[in-house]
Amino acid sequence: MAELARDLLSTSGMIDTLRQDLRYAYRALRRSPGFTAIAVLSLALGIGANTAIFNVVDVLWLRSLPVTDPQRLVAFRIDDGSVKADFWYYVNFSYPDFVRLRDRSVAFAEIAAVGLLDRAGVTIDGAADPAPVRVALVSGSYFRLYGVTAARGRTLTPEDDRLPSGHPVAVISDAYWSSRFARRPDVVGRTFALNGVTYSILGVAPRAFSGDWLGRPTDIWIPIMMQPDVMLEMPGLLTRGNGWVRIVARLKPDVTMAQANAATQVMWRQMKLEDAGPHATPEQLRSWLSDHVSLVSAAKGYSPQRAPFAAAFSILVAVVGFVLLIACANVANLLLARVTGRRREMAVRLALGARRTRIVRQVLTEGVLLAVCGGALGLLISFWATAALAAVPLAPVQMDSRAASAWMSYDLHPDLRILAFTSALCVLTAMLFGLAPALRGSKVPLVAGLTERGASASARRGRLDLGKVLIIGEVVLSFVLLVAGGLFVRTLRNLTSVDLGLDRQHVLLVWTAPGQTGRAGPALASLCQTILQRLSTVPGVESVSASNGGLLLGSVGGAPSEGIRIPGQPPKSGQIMATTAVMPGYFATIGLPVVAGRDFNDGDTADAPTVQIVNETFARFFFGDENPIGRHYGRYGGGAGFPIEIVGVVKDTKYGSPRDRNRMWTYSPHLQGIGLMRNMQIAVRVTGPPMALAGRLRQELRRIDPGLPILKIDTVNGQLADVLAPERLTSAFATLFGVLAIAMACMGLYGVVAYTVSRRRSEIGVRMALGATRARVFRTVAADSAVLVVIGITIGAALALALTRLVSSQLFGVSAADPVILVGAALLTAAVVATASVIPAHQASRIDPMMALRTE
């Protein structure tokens, strides 16, 4: 008794007991390598998948910026009454807007402006940097707002941001210091050149801070007053009202978000009234006041990918959660069978004086050991899965100078939080799948456990009821995942096959930024014309043209239809209209038919009358069944009268995403809006495989101008794949995990049926000795499994119908209750899972009655 008390109270006694339990658990698992391998692999797949998804969710939605008091940070957002939160709603402020908000606001301790750009042509020590760099033009208060201090040197201050083109200084990121300056300790004071201007490096930002735009780490921070020298394509943005910056601020300690929001909206309305002027008409006032400004939390940084990927990752979180539950049920089933097979061992230990709590602890120890091994292997699997997720393009290239667009990268390396999550998951899974077997093992009746007859009788009475429930649960969850995978695969296929209104097979898309070469006006027009002429001479090229807007951009901006003025018509609402500048031959090159009127020609110059081509949606919206050719219209803010003549109508096409409904689109000849061609998507119609000419086109563009930025070269289908990245991600992972789930359910059913057969050998031998045929025994064993599968599919169908309706908004061209998918999932589940009982049933039919009776 004294020894027992010492063991209970002594820490060393508890450690010794734990060591004994671990050693015994290790030996027990080592004696059953097949069981151990299946259990560890099941847990590893479930834990690894959950860890990988949590890593991405943590980066995009949970992790705050590594700055001082991030909860006080807010971002300004243009609000047009919709619930969208994409790129355009945040990067649509002008620098004069920022100055007025900064000078008039009383709710913010600091306020800063930032514009993020991809630039080419940086020169370090006389050598041109071959890679593009990401430059953030920031106001002098930027680093002070975030509370970020330099790791070396100092950061920018308001004194470094007062005179236009007067502050050629910069701060570089830790990653850029490492990759371009080899972490030289004398980096502060060194210089680099951009667009012919030499910048002195003031300092290096800390390693943890790479800007506030998630996925687009900044390389260089430059004062925003250097904008004319950095953005050669738009040198006047410090004075003009063009939207191109984001505005972030820090609330004063005594100001709430609601108070700051109300004050900011009042300020914004006053600013818009000033912009409209005292002589604005009621229609013009409505147009000026159509936009509002709201504040949102900026604690977690800025990411336009959050909104489009929120639904996809919510679905993936549910899917991997289902996979983990199936893994737990699978291992619990195996442990139940294992504990029931060790009834004699448990009974002997109880008879020798072991307490039931010790039996529970021993079985739980085995479960914890399995969970730890599964967690370790799952962490390795999560590294691979995370790398696969990081390789998914989360956004197509944006054709706009207001934001960086060429590449994205996320820091998805697991940190301490991810390790903590994995550890917690291991403990949770150990409790989930280890508790029931542990309790079952501690309740073994001594007499029944010490006799083989008792054990056999137990098997005959079907004491694996909990195991059968777990098998049914696995089938239910697997069926739901298969249905979800089928729905998302059909959705992706439907979106991929949508008629885009253009030629997918013979068009190559080349993204360039001619404005970054410093050309404007006639010089820019000449460069664009030279590009078309030279590329058209490349063998295999049928025709070449270009636009400033581009195809399949994922999201596109626009103006409300109320801004269009048609003679004799009141303003009409309900549509959004966008305009693209195109070069001659554009419609023929991309395969977009002109259905009425004419195409642009060489006579549509800057001095010629203003003409436009509209799409069918525009024509129907404003003119109904009337012929729009020769009709005129105007725009609010575009001067008096109706100066724009419609000379043609083209078919509708998808400029954003296949999900988009047809919207109004107008096209202008590039010479009547040459300033818009500073960003250009070149469309090249080829006679052979499009990507086969990518290298040749790149070489030709380099010959035209070595400093011409080439952002990307891709096919129409390649660009479509980038736009459909959320759908591809959901479809691929839902299908993968659905197959994985059904495989684990198959393993679980096999384990239970095989164990049941082994425990019923005597009973089956007696039946066969009394005349039961092998076919009858096979059908009896298989029927038991079939009942479990049928029950699981029935419950799974009801659950699938309920759950898939929650994701109906993510589907396209398919119903959540699609009968083909439901029947297909049912047949696949029945076929795959039922095969798990074939081998045990066959083994049961081959039992030798004499051997079985001799054992009995």
Outline: globular
Helix percent reads 40-55%
| Biggest sheet features | 10 strands, mixed
Cα(first) to Cα(last) distance is 42 Å
The count of domains is 3
What's the overall average pLDDT, rounded? 83
Question: In percent, how much strand structure appears in the residues?
Answer: 5-15%
Query: Count of helical segments?
Result: 28
Low-confidence stretches: 1-9, 446-450, 452-464
Query: Structural class given helices, strands, pairing?
Result: alpha+beta
Describe the structure.
- With 856 residues, the protein is α+β, with helices and mostly antiparallel strands.
- The protein has three domains: 34-53 and 307-495 and 726-855, no CATH class; 70-299, no CATH class; 514-708, no CATH class.
- It is 50% helix and 15% strand.
- The chain has 28 helices and 24 strands.
- The strands form four sheets. Strands 1, 2, 5, 6, 7, 8, 9, 10, 11 and 12 form a ten-stranded mixed beta sheet that branches. Strands 15, 16, 17, 18, 19, 20, 21 and 22 form an eight-stranded mixed beta sheet that branches.
- Helix 17 (465-496) packs antiparallel against helix 23 and helix 25 (774-804) runs antiparallel to helix 27.
- It is globular and about 105 Å long.
- The two termini are 42 Å apart.
- Mean pLDDT is 83; it is low at 1-9, 446-450 and 452-464.
